[in-house]
Fold this sequence. Notes:
The complex is a heterodimer.
Chain A: E1 4-5, E2 10-14, E3 19-25, E4 32-38, E5 45-51, E6 56-59, E7 62-67, E8 72-77, E9 86-93, E10 101-102, E11 106-111
Parallel strand pairs in A: 2-11
Antiparallel strand pairs in A: 1-3, 3-8, 4-5, 4-9, 6-7, 7-8, 9-10, 9-11
Chain B: E1 4-7, E2 10-13, E3 19-25, E4 31-38, E5 42-51, E6 54-57, E7 64-66, E8 76-78, E9 87-94, E10 101-102, E11 106-110
Parallel strand pairs in B: 2-11
Antiparallel strand pairs in B: 1-3, 3-8, 4-5, 4-9, 5-6, 7-8, 9-10, 9-11
Amino acid sequence: xxxxxxxxxxxxxxxxxxxxxxxxxxxxxxxxxxxxxxxxxxxxxxxxxxxxxxxxxxxxxxxxxxxxxxxxxxxxxxxxxxxxxxxxxxxxxxxxxxxxxxxxxxxxxxxx
Amino acid sequence: xxxxxxxxxxxxxxxxxxxxxxxxxxxxxxxxxxxxxxxxxxxxxxxxxxxxxxxxxxxxxxxxxxxxxxxxxxxxxxxxxxxxxxxxxxxxxxxxxxxxxxxxxxxxxxx
Lengths: 112, 111
C-alpha cells in the first residue's frame, strides 16, 4: 500500500514556464516532507523540505507547498530550466524516525 | 569531503555467486541505509543502521546481509545472487531525521 503517491509518472513543460509536481500521502503521522532530484546514473540529491508546522517553504526557484487537510504537497519550479530535467521523488517521515517513505517519482522534461 | 562513496559502479554476477557492495561515508553520520531502485518501483529500503554495531531490516531484506563495524562503512552482502536482484543499489547516510545523502549507485546485473 503506497503511503506516498506521485500520480503523474511524467511531466513536460516549456523552458521558462512553471513546473508543478504533486505528491499525496495517506499517513497522518508524517510530519516532515522532502523532495529529491535524480539525474540518470547518479544518486538522488536533496532538493527542499518542509515541516508539517509550515505550509510553504521557498529556496530560490523552488517552492514546496503543504496542505495538511488534503494530505497533499506540491513542488513548484519557477522558471523551469532544461537542467531541471530529472526524476523528482517525494518522501516523508514521522517523528525521529530516519526511515523515509518514498513515492515512485515523476520524470520532468523541460523543453528548450 | 568525499561524501558517500560506493564501489563498484558496475558488476555482473552469475546466479549463485556472492559479492559485497561497498559503501563508505566521511561525514560522521550515524544513520546509513541501503536501497534498491527498480523501474516503476521507486526506492525500496533493504537494510539500515542507526550506528556502529546496530543494523535492522527494511522492506526488502531477503537475500542480503549487512554489518556495521565502524561509523564510516556499511557493506551490503549478496549471499547467493539471483536474477531478481538485478537492480541499481544506492547507499545513503543521514545526519538527522529525513535528510539523506546518497552515493552514486552500483548497477548490478545477475545472469
